[in-house]
Amino acid sequence: MTVDLACSVPNNVGLAGRPELLRLLEWFQGGYREWWHDCGPAGIRDNEVYLRTPVGVDSDGWAAYGFVPLSQYRWGVFQTNPKPRTALFGEVAGQPVWQTLPSEHRGYMKKLLVIQGDTEPGSVEQSRLLAQTAPSLYDLRNLLQFSVEEGRHLWSMVHLLFEHFGAEGRDDAEGLLSRRSGSGDNRRLLDAFNNPVSDWLSFFIWCFLADRDGKYQLHSVSESAFDPLARTAQFMLTEEAHHMFIGEDGLRRVIERTLELMREHDTDDIAPFGGIPLAMIQRFFNFWAPRIYDLFGNDESPRAAQAFDAGIKGRIHEAGFADHRRLDDPVRVERREAGGFAQVEVPMRHALNGLMRREYLKEVQLLMSRWNRTLRRAGVEQELTLPSPRFNRNFGVYEGLHCSPAGDPVDVATFESRRAEWLPTAADRAHLAALMQPVHDIGKMAGWIAPPMRGINSQAVDFEYVRF
Ligand SMILES: [Fe+2]
Ligand SMILES: [Fe+2]
Fold first, then answer.
1. Which of the residues 81, 224, 348, 420 could staple to 327 if both were Cys, CB 3.0 to 4.6 A apart?
2. Is the pTM of this model over 0.90?
3. Which CATH number describes the domain made up of 15-303+352-435?
């Protein structure tokens, strides 16, 4: 497929030869631009920003870097190039993949596209105010890159809706532009996307945890028998890597600065010195992690089994498994039983969501263990940990349960009495709000975060990433 950057919607999906599809996307473009104007990063309009924009889909050189006035960013539609392949898993394993959607899967696929699509603008909306408080031009640029790419992910989902559902997809597209993160009666579909990300610590945790959930969701459809979805997800994954980097490296820098201040002032309580204490970082992890766990759905899910059988949604690194059909290896899940929990073994096919969440947790824990090594080397006893999947959940088998972050059941009174120890307090939020002051001087960093080790695309850290 050739890359057409001159088209009103830059693309490599042949829009020039699909006038009806292009018309639908141009119709969407009007509403999208209005949405971006109202809900995109606050206070940044015509500033020139050093951004990458897709210009192809080759693994090296898929993006061009340059200054773009944010209001003139061009959102496009890209998929990795088609390859002859057969379905990898499910009842259709070994059969040719589909370029058009079999009618029996239309209902499920529409839901999947709408739910995935809804998360993308949701994540832009919930962090839009952060553009006013970036700790450096480098960080501001990363937020804006994240925002335009989440916007582009919405375009990807809308493209699939229009291509495979035609004008029938219009109502869904309108819904995607009209729902609002956190709005009372017209909220985003998934709860995690209705929590405002109002400080940069939360933003880094969000990118570290939620964009990684995004990676897992995209991976699970990147081998889908529905080939357009697979190739769309594969290209989205190339963008997702940077979002996870923003989170992981942002947190590493916060911790580095926290350690510096602890050494300098010989105390854990570095808040009075303009830092973010480790215990506070932990409370914010405890706040966000359960919202991200919720995104994986019920550990035991008949719907996930159906999507697997249909060949639509597989496991992470599906190719690495020997069996792609039966999935009857035992997997351990936890169920709630009168007054406690029961560990039961079920066939893997019944616990695909739980399996995915477990793989995800392993990856996150591995990354966090690196920070903990740094802490230990600095002689700090405290570790940063993920709360137990039982802690503070709004969805699934642990919904409404009172447990400590370690996963031990407690009564309501105990939970409430220890809330301030486990979850962010009003004072924590006020402290972060006070720290969040914009830094626009070239190469300067706010006092609560260390500088990055290198800049973007071989530029220096003290490069003018955003022009004011
Ligand atoms: Fe995304
Ligand atoms: Fe992302």
1. 348
2. yes
3. 1.10.620.20
